[in-house]
UniProtKB/TrEMBL annotation:
HAMAP family: Pep_deformylase. Removes the formyl group from the N-terminal Met of newly synthesized proteins. Requires at least a dipeptide for an efficient rate of reaction. N-terminal L-methionine is a prerequisite for activity but the enzyme has broad specificity at other positions. This is Peptide deformylase. Pfam families: Pep_deformylase (PF01327). SUPFAM superfamilies: Peptide deformylase (SSF56420). The active site is at 178. The gene is def. Its EC number is 3.5.1.88. The keyword Glycoprotein does not apply. GO terms for molecular function: peptide deformylase activity. It comes from Streptomyces tibetensis.
Length: 216
């Protein structure tokens, strides 16, 4: 058993393609359900809470407690009907996000990234997409935000194995958005003052559709 576990960790949780990127498009329904059914949904922390506005701590212990956190994150993401969720969005100071997100071709991607770092793109890959963006921590608010339509992230999977993840379109936006969270940035921090004010107004005018943690 111990040897089998070691071999599995060396191989990584997800298979990789010929270029070394994880293949996160297979068995998405089964993998997401397995995580979610073990987890407990937690309320979402909203803008203004200090945990959202500072860099999170690196994940160094991938043990049972951390595995439960990941399960809770998948459960919370499903309750909130999100496509990505960072640990600090449920009040936990840990550098990990989960995702269950389609790309612009409708292909579903599901996975876990710990200690992510965005790869700096060469100029020829930096095509900007100014689609609307929203955030579970800024409920009911949306604003256009230009981001590259392709993204690469390096980090570790839920067992600590090194991984590389890449995405296009909506999934690329998700990877950038969730990585931002773990370094203390919300998408509204990248807006102009006027656009940020409008997003916060939208948030104030409507009730979120999922449980949130009220700021004192």
């Amino acid at each position: 058993m111990a040897q089998q576990d070691t071999d599995q960790q060396r191989a990584g949780v997800l298979p990789v393609d010929d270029e070394g990127y994880v293949i996160d498009t297979e068995d998405c329904e089964e993998r997401e359900a397995a995580w979610r059914e073990r987890g407990t949904s937690r309320p979402i922390t909203v803008v203004g809470n200090p945990v959202l506005h500072k860099e999170c701590k690196d994940v160094t212990d991938f043990g049972e407690e951390f595995q439960q956190l990941v399960a809770d994150m998948f459960a919370s993401q499903r309750t909130a009907e999100g496509v990505g969720l960072a640990a600090n969005q449920i009040g936990v100071d840990a550098k990990v996000f989960v995702y269950d997100c389609p790309d612009d071709e409708g292909v579903r991607h599901t996975g876990v990234v710990c200690n992510p770092k965005l790869v700096e793109l060469p100029a020829e890959k930096r095509r900007l997409d100014d689609s609307n963006e929203g955030c579970l921590s800024v409920p009911t608010a949306y604003a256009p935000l230009a981001r590259p339509d392709y993204a690469e992230v390096t980090g570790q999977d839920e067992k600590g194995n090194p991984i590389r993840v890449r995405g296009t379109g909506y999934f690329a936006r998700c990877l950038q958005h969730e990585t931002d969270h773990l370094y203390g940035y919300l998408y509204i921090d990248r807006l102009s003052k006027r656009e940020r004010k409008d997003a916060l107004r939208q948030m104030a005018e409507k009730e979120p559709r999922y449980p949130v943690v009220a700021n004192d």
